[in-house]
Design brief:
Blueprint: H1 2-44, H2 55-66, H3 84-98, H4 103-114, H5 129-157, H6 164-182
Length: 183
């Protein structure tokens, strides 16, 4: 009897130890997964791009690139854009600044190469008049159309007096409906 009881305990212990090992394995896997999830965002960081040797040139480049539009992103400055085009233009600006060119010379070079669209504030010229004054013209046209429409609508909505025949017909309808409600 003691032998049977002993064998039974060994069998139960074997099952219990297998269950404990599975639980420990799950805990290890969980801890490993947790560790990976915590550490992985740290590996996403990239090394900072090297700035120019001269911090004064870098400040001028950033100030100049804030005034220029990225032609790929179109609604972002060159300083804020991450496109390859913006990186190339910033590199070009940096090179020209190292050649001691003025900001005006650099912007003239970029305008000659890419047109006025590269500037956030294009100059007022005959070919940019619509760009500068177009929104105001469209606003004025819209206001005129709205006023004209409202005047026409007011004329259409004016009440015309009812004729005697229409008044009699309305009275009979009201009497019939009130008679139906009383029943």
């Amino acid at each position: 009897m003691n032998l049977k009881l002993f064998l039974k305990l060994i069998r139960n212990y074997g099952r219990l130890s297998a269950t404990c090992l599975q639980i420990l394995s799950c805990k290890r896997q969980f801890l490993l997964l947790l560790f990976i999830l915590i550490v992985s965002p740290l590996s996403w960081g990239k090394e900072a791009l090297p700035v120019a040797d001269n911090p004064e040139i870098e400040k001028r480049m950033i100030a100049l690139s804030e005034e220029l539009r990225c032609l790929v992103c179109q609604n972002e400055s060159l300083a804020g854009s991450r496109s390859d085009f913006a990186k190339d233009i910033r590199r070009e600006i940096r090179e020209q600044l190292m050649e001691n060119k003025s900001d005006k010379e650099i912007t003239d070079f970029l305008v000659a190469r890419y047109g006025d669209f590269v500037l956030y504030r294009p100059p007022v010229r005959t070919n940019t008049m619509l760009l500068w004054f177009g929104p105001f013209i469209f606003l004025l046209i819209g206001a005129c159309v709205l006023i004209f429409y409202l005047k026409q609508r007011r004329k259409l909505l004016q009440e015309s007096p009812l004729s005697n025949e229409q008044l009699k017909q309305a009275e009979t309808l009201l009497k019939e409906s009130s008679d139906g409600d009383n029943k």
